[in-house]
Design a protein that fits this description.
Layout lengths: L3 E7 L3 E10 L2 E11 L7 H11 L6 E6 L5 E7 L7 H16 L4 E7 L8 E8 L1 H13 L3 E7 H10 L9 E6 L4 E7 L2 E8 L3 H12 L3 H8 L12 H25 L9 E5 L8 H9 L3 E3 L11 E2 L2 E2 L1 H11 L11 H99 L5 E7 L6 H12 L31 H12 L3 E8 L5 H11 L4 E12 L6 H6 L4 E10 L3
Parallel strand pairs: 1-4, 4-8, 9-12, 12-13
Antiparallel strand pairs: 1-2, 2-3, 5-7, 6-7, 9-10, 10-11, 14-15, 16-17, 17-19, 18-19
Helix pairs in contact: 4-9, 5-6, 5-7
Length: 582
């Protein structure tokens, strides 16, 4: 959407055009043009059309002003306990006006909360007959432009002048004196309170000069800005004062309606701000201050008036207000453009962009479709290749797992033989030491490595104790013990060059330096066993010798054959021997 808005202020004596551009949220005036219409021109539409073509506005969308004399305004307030929205309240008012007028009025509504009236919402309706709007819209083609928006002239006046004034809480009255019509707007810095139009203007002063001097209207208009005025020494002062009294009377009559609707002292008018070509009469400001009993200023006296708004033909206040209203950078937005025409304006404004967007979208869809098909085909081929590689890798992985299982089984089966071959000489030397140190009356029944010393009876007791809270029954003692080697852990895979040395190192590390000797002695006090331990400790190869356990073994009863032999009572002993491995 374009950020440039064009406003056309078409009056009876002049036409003013203004270009406004939004730079971010700040409105900037980029161009202004004006054209003075002849006083005796019967058909000004042709002149306006030629001027529109000359300034480059042919068939451009422009915001135009709805004359205040063809607009109606209704003000009201919504109390805090009223649940209705301003639109709902406005719809009821419009229904009443439409019934009285016998036609369905077109309208716009604006609401706000004044700072000097907390919790009270004020609203104002801008209305017009459909026939008046249609007539104004129908003139646009003959003047070679298109209406982008319709705004009542008093609303445009308020938005323009209020943007140039400093913030104020009490109402100010803005008056734009045109040639044959004067626009009136009363408002605070937060919003518009009241709007009217009176059918008097600068032409009334020109007619007074014509009546006093007998000059033609064109010459009377020139003289009005030369030596005529409201001062005692000015020409035609008496006639102009009578005209000024009629103007003040019409103004007070219009503002009387405002005073009847806003009777609170907080809503009393604080100041008047005048603008327009008809207000430039000499002595007019001082005369108004005497009659209105309030301060009077011109818009040109405001500090914040943009320099771009002033020109040879006056201030572009109405045009500036139209552009601000169209750009929504205004205080009070009140549009009278019908919804159907708004849709047409939006469509025509955006039609080239929509066509370009549609073409770009179609091209993008075509490119995306072709690219998508190509990428889909490429990804499908890549996926098939990856599936084939994955299947081959799964097959290799299965073969590796089978090979690992076979290797682990072979290593497990080779552990006893490896231990026997590697640990044999050391075991033989330790067994020789034991045989040399044992008492002749003692018996050695078991000699083994500590790692394979795992009696079945002890495992049974431990498992029973873990599985049940009650102690498991002890297995009967036997002179013969079963030995079984635990399963060897599968070796971790290593690089090929390091496998053989590492296997030997792992095998050596797996061997134990501790041996178990189990036997029986007839000595109840284990004297012979202690002497054997003492003799073993003196050997250089032995690092440590401890008595691991001893049990008393009673002679068997109930067996006649063994009772006849009269076997003595024995003590079973278990010795743990730790040696230094060479």
């Amino acid at each position: 959407m374009s950020n440039t808005f064009i406003a056309l202020d078409i009056g009876t004596r002049s036409v003013r055009a203004l270009w406004l551009t939004l730079r971010g949220s700040r409105p900037v005036i980029t161009r202004k043009e004006s054209f003075a219409l002849p006083m005796d021109e019967e058909n000004p539409d042709k002149l306006i059309a030629a001027w529109v073509d000359s300034v480059g506005l042919n068939h451009h969308f422009c915001t135009i002003a709805m004359p205040g004399s063809q607009s109606l305004f209704q003000t009201g307030r919504i109390m805090p306990n009223d649940p209705r929205t301003p639109e709902q309240v406005a719809a009821m008012d419009i229904a009443q006006f439409s019934e009285m007028a016998g036609d369905e009025m077109r309208y716009g509504v604006f609401s706000f909360e004044p700072k000097n009236e907390p919790q009270i919402r004020r609203y104002i309706l801008s209305m017009a007959r459909p026939s008046a709007l249609d007539e104004l819209v129908a003139k646009a083609p003959s003047r070679h432009f298109r209406p982008a928006d319709l705004v009542a002239a008093p609303v445009a006046l308020f938005n323009a002048v209020e943007s140039m004034t400093e913030p104020h809480d009490k109402p100010w009255c803005y008056v734009a004196v045109g040639d044959s019509e004067t626009q009136i707007a009363v408002g605070v810095h937060d919003g518009l309170l009241f709007a009217r139009s009176i059918p008097v203007g600068g032409k009334m002063f020109t007619d007074a000069i014509v009546q006093a001097t007998g000059l033609p209207p064109v010459q009377a208009e020139v003289r009005k800005h030369a030596d005529c005025g409201l001062g005692a020494a000015d020409a035609c002062s008496e006639e102009l004062r009578l005209a000024a009294d009629r103007f003040v009377s019409q103004l007070n009559a219009a503002l009387g309606v405002y005073k009847s609707q806003f009777q609170d002292r907080k809503m009393a008018i604080e100041k008047y701000v005048f603008t327009g070509g008809g207000a430039q009469l000499k002595g007019f400001k001082a005369y108004l201050e005497q009659k209105l009993f309030l301060p009077v200023q011109y818009t040109t006296e405001q500090v914040s008036v943009p320099m771009e708004l002033t020109g040879e033909n006056g201030v572009y206040d109405i045009a500036y207000g139209l552009a601000l209203t169209a750009s929504r950078c205004c205080i009070a937005y009140l549009s009278l453009l019908p919804d159907s025409l708004k849709d047409e304006v939006i469509f025509r404004q955006k039609k080239p962009w929509w066509i370009a967007g549609a073409l770009f979208l179609l091209g993008a869809i075509a490119v995306y479709s072709v690219t998508g098909l190509y990428l889909l085909d490429r990804d499908t081929k890549m996926l098939d290749a990856e599936k084939a590689k994955l299947a081959m890798r799964e097959k290799i992985d299965k073969q590796i797992q089978v090979t690992r299982q076979r290797s682990a089984q072979i290593i497990t089966n080779s552990v006893p033989l490896s231990e026997l071959l590697v640990n044999g000489p050391l075991a033989r030397a330790v067994l020789t030491l034991v045989a040399q140190s044992v008492d002749p009356n003692d018996w050695i029944t078991l000699f083994c490595d500590e790692k394979i010393y795992n009696p079945v009876e002890q495992e049974t007791e431990e498992k029973a104790a873990k599985n049940t809270a009650a102690p498991a029954p002890s297995a009967p003692f036997s002179l013969f013990r079963s030995l079984r080697a635990g399963p060897a852990e599968a070796p971790k895979p290593r690089p090929t060059g390091e496998q053989e040395p590492q296997k030997k190192k792992d095998l050596v590390d797996a061997l134990s330096n501790v041996f178990i000797v189990e036997g029986y002695t007839p000595n109840p006090n284990l004297k012979s066993v202690k002497e054997m331990i003492t003799r073993l400790k003196t050997a250089q190869e032995v690092k440590r010798v401890d008595l691991r356990g001893d049990d008393q073994v009673l002679a068997p009863t109930g067996i006649p054959e063994l009772e006849e032999e009269k076997l003595p009572n024995f003590r079973r002993f278990v010795i743990e021997i730790e040696v230094n491995r060479p």
